[in-house]
Amino acid sequence: MVLRSLRRPLLAFLTALALLLLPATPAWAEFVLPPLPYAAEALEPAIDATTMTIHHDRHHGAYVANLNGLIEANPTLAKLSLESLQGQISRFPMAVRNNAGGHWNHSQFWAAMAPVGQGGEPSAEVLAAVNGTFGSMESLQTQFNQAAAGRFGSGWAWLIRKPNGSLAITSTANQDNPLMDLPGIEAGSPLLGLDVWEHAYYLKYQNRRPDYIKAWWSLVNWNEVNRRYAALS
Ligand code: MN3
């Protein structure tokens, strides 16, 4: 009898204790660092494991953490997907632009690479679009490499599909990207984006950015490029 009479208050006490100990759940949806879709060493020798680990865990991780830290001061962030945020980035302060861009850019970057031999081939549709705009894949690569090597300081080189359906090569500074509604940025949907910040290649290539760009082509995940292109058509 004594035990039974104690059971109910004991349960109530334990429930209250559990609620007290649970971490406070934020009222908003936080941005999440996606895991690498392969092992950190899977892209060697083109990109070394140490660079991949630091780049993903610390650099990309910092953009995500910083972006989450900006939600409280910019509550509309919590209502937007990462992608739709890019298209209205002009409404937000520079810190949101840098960190939201950093998060989106790196997310697409990891997905658009694959270990050598595992990235597939361009689809017939992608090849037709490439040949229609550039004449050949070789010509696309030459122009892309020039954009990537010629980006002064930190930034990205892009292959985009423009709103009129044709392809183009462009480059952006810092963590900007072609989805952003900003003056001076050629608008389009990125099919491929290459990080040419020094943190992406300096450990292995030092100042030899063109060697990094050349090696990166062996990692392109054409299956992902094909998927992005098909999703736009
Ligand atoms: Mn980077």
Summarize model confidence as the mean pLDDT: 93
Number of domains: 1
Major sheet summary line: 3 strands, antiparallel
Strand order within the widest sheet? 2-1-3
Strand residue percentage:
5-15%
Total E-strand runs? 3
Q: What is the CATH topology assignment?
A: minor pseudopilin epsh fold
Tell me which ligands are bound.
manganese (III) ion
What is the succession of H and E elements? Answer: HHHHHHEEEHHH
Main CATH class: Alpha Beta
- Give the CATH superfamily: Iron/manganese superoxide dismutase, C-terminal domain
Task: Specify the number of helices.
Answer: 9
| Secondary structure: helix percent | 40-55%
Name the structural class.
Answer: mainly alpha
- Identify the overall geometry: globular
Radius of gyration: 22 Å
At CATH level 2, the architecture is 3-Layer(bab) Sandwich
Distance between the termini: 72 Å
Poorly predicted tracts of residues: none
Identify the notable features of this structure and list them briefly.
233 residues, minor pseudopilin epsh fold, three-stranded antiparallel β-sheet, binds manganese (III) ion, mainly alpha, 48% helix, 9 helices, 9% strand
Topology:
Blueprint: H1 2-21, H2 49-69, H3 82-86, H4 94-111, H5 124-134, H6 137-150, E1 155-161, E2 167-173, E3 189-195, H7 202-205, H8 209-216, H9 222-232
Helix pairs in contact: 2-4
The protein binds manganese (III) ion (MN3).
